[in-house]
Design a protein that fits this description.
Layout lengths: L1 E2 L4 H17 L8 E3 L6 H10 L6 E3 L2 H12 L8 E5 L5 E6 L4 H13 L1
Parallel strand pairs: 1-2, 2-3
Antiparallel strand pairs: 4-5
Length: 116
């Protein structure tokens, strides 16, 4: 989950993804986070993580280099947060979703991939 401290949708949705991560990590389904607020904002990011009760691991990234990485990986421009990247256990990216992603849609996607 790509997120930022100023993202109102992220603030609303993070608790659901924290719960999802806590409930599914034993099955190998994890939600790693990437805060796009930059290394200089580590204090603000950590404070936000506490306020939002983020229980999934989160990396800090500067927006410009991460946006370049995103474009190389997806062929698309990074438009904002939240954005979701879905990876297989072997590390291969299989999907990206810009904007809100319902947990039910994620479960459906995982179920479809498991059948293939």
């Amino acid at each position: 989950m790509l997120w930022s401290v100023t993202c109102a949708i992220c603030a609303r949705e993070v608790p659901r993804y924290s719960d999802f991560h806590a409930q599914q990590k034993a099955r190998g389904i994890k939600v790693p986070g990437v805060s796009l607020d930059g290394y200089a904002q580590q204090g603000t990011i950590q404070q936000t993580m506490q306020q939002w009760n983020i229980r999934f691991p989160t990396l800090f990234a500067d927006l410009s280099p991460f946006a370049s990485y995103y474009q190389r990986e997806t062929g698309e421009q990074l438009l904002g947060t939240p954005t979701f990247l879905v990876y297989r256990p072997d590390g291969r990216m299989v999907a990206n979703n810009r904007g809100l992603m319902r947990i039910s849609a994620l479960f459906d996607y995982i179920a479809r991939q498991s059948r293939e």
